[in-house]
Design goal:
Shape: elongated
Number of strands: 0
Largest sheet: none
Distance between the termini: 56 Å
Radius of gyration: 21 Å
Structural class: mainly alpha
Amino acid sequence: MKKNIQAGPLATAVRLLSRRDHSEQQLREKLRRNEFTAEQIDEAIVELKRRGYLDDARLKQHVLENLLGEKRHGLRSIQEKLRQLGFGQISSSELRQYYPEEAEWEAAIRLLEKRFPALYSEDFSRLARFLANRGFSTEIVSKLARECRKYQ
């Protein structure tokens, strides 16, 4: 995106936020790419927060609700997506408040049933890789291994 010579950092940030929500980290990076100074960016961020346009806590909650609603992500995948959006490292215990192990288990089973209709006749290592690549915890993958052994 090219810097509009007449648009200052605040106007640029408002334009970016009008398209979609951004975390403070994402917005800072985009403003840096537009060659605004650190001082200009700081002033714009303060003003955006004052106006209520930039709220990382609200965005984090919204993203978390969307990811949990999709029911196709494991705990580690959700942690990584939140980290990539600039919310730092979220602890497993903090995330478990929103995503208990039972819910992760149900999401894993639902995802496997959709992807592998003959769930228990498949090679377990393939199923385990599938879940691990989608960020499901080792506890969930181990529990699945015990379940698969019952049907072999």
